[in-house]
Amino acid sequence: MAKEKQNAKTEKEEEGEIIEINESTEELENEGIEISSDVIGVIAGVAVSEIEGVAGMAGSFAGGITEVLSGKKNLAKGIKVDINGQKVKLDINIIVEYGTRIPDIAYKIQKRVKTSVETMTGLSVDEVNVHVQGVNTDSTEAESEEKEEK
Predict the structure, then answer these.
(1) Assigned domain for 103 exists
(2) Which DSSP category does 112 fall into?
(3) Considering the domain boundaries, does residue 15 fall inside one?
(4) Which residues span the domain enclosing 58?
(5) Rounded CA separation 42/110 (Å)
(6) Is 59 helix (H, G, I), strand (E, B) or coil?
(7) Which of 58, 62, 117, 141 is the most exposed place for a label (fewest CB within 10 A)?
């Protein structure tokens, strides 16, 4: 994006005289900066992990093996990023906790991811598609086992 110079003229009336002020501003928005889709994926992953009711991200089988072998947690797991110029489209695959309201979680994810990505990168988020890939029932199984033991 080329530098754009804007001349703003403001008129001010002071004791019957008109004073003209010329201001020159330069607008530099993301000039020469390229943000990797991996970076946007990590930003979105961190935003999703902060939402209560999300048990985890649903990634591919190959991604799971890579995570196990490297020993590092992949924060962009389950997130597909599509960048087209200054616009971003995200597909997020999640696993929800049993008993949580899925539409509420999806809405919170959309809002938080959009805000986080736009704030940190300056790019415009057009779509945040949330795909629920499963429901985590581990916590309910543990609770039912505790009740049976009593």
Answers:
(1) yes
(2) H
(3) no
(4) 37-149
(5) 15
(6) coil
(7) 62
Q: What is the largest CA-CA distance in the chain?
A: 89
Angle at 56 (CA atoms; ends 80, 64), nearest 5 degrees: 65
C-alpha count within 13 angstroms, C-beta hemisphere, residue 148: 6
Residue pointed to by tokens 């990590």: 42
Kindly state whether residue 29 falls inside one of the protein's structural domains: no
Residue 120's CATH number: 3.30.70.1350
Q: How far apart are CA 49 and CA 113, in angstroms?
A: 10
Residue with tokens 């999640």: 94
In a domain, 61, yes or no: yes
| Count of structural domains within the chain | 1
- Output the tens digit of pLDDT for each of the chain's 150 residues: 443 434 333 344 444 455 444 443 334 455 678 899 999 999 999 999 999 999 988 875 545 444 555 555 678 889 999 999 899 999 999 999 999 999 999 999 999 999 999 999 999 999 999 999 999 998 655 555 555 665
Angle at 144 between CA 55 and CA 140, to 5 degrees: 10
Residue partners of 7: CB distance under 8 A and separation at least 6 = 22, 23, 24
